[in-house]
Amino acid sequence: MLTGTRIEAPKLGSVAVTRPDPWDMTDAVLLTVLCLFCAGTALGVTRRARSSCRNDEADERLVTLGELVAAFDHMLVRKGLMTRTQLDLIRTGTRSRGVVTGMRTTGAAREDYREVELDLMVSRCGGGQFPIRQRALVPASALTRVSPGNVIDTYYRPGDEGAVAVCVPPA
């Protein structure tokens, strides 16, 4: 019994098999190499342009110890941590030891330094001692080093014992 349905034979297409053209792949590789070459050239030119703005190594020189000390001294004076007179005493004065006999904080501060008023008994190089009261900025981490009874570095001029500089390194 037929219901009116027709069955047709499947349509088959043809498949052609060919070998890939080696020139198609070569063109893609050549195009990739050309792009990489152009990018590398552009980066090299940019890098050379940036480096030409900088100083040559021939223009550079080593800093001497004197220049380094002068720059450091200038920084201390500029920040207000020491005066020029105190720096001169430290650089050219007589180094001695001072015993702290009293210490009072003034409440003033600069950066990580606290201002204190010290009562000192400074030892003379030739023997003997002299008392002095000195205001100094001391690192906050070294405030315990300036408590009464401690010994700190002091600098003075033998002919002028009225001016003393103290030096307390950070803890």
From TrEMBL:
Keywords per UniProt: Membrane, Transmembrane, Transmembrane helix
Transmembrane parts of this sequence: 28-45
Highest taxon listed in the record's lineage: Bacteria
Keyword Membrane belongs to the record: yes
Protein's UniProt name: Uncharacterized protein
Species assigned in the record: Mycolicibacterium fortuitum (Mycobacterium fortuitum)
Lineage of the species this protein comes from: Bacteria, Bacillati, Actinomycetota, Actinomycetes, Mycobacteriales
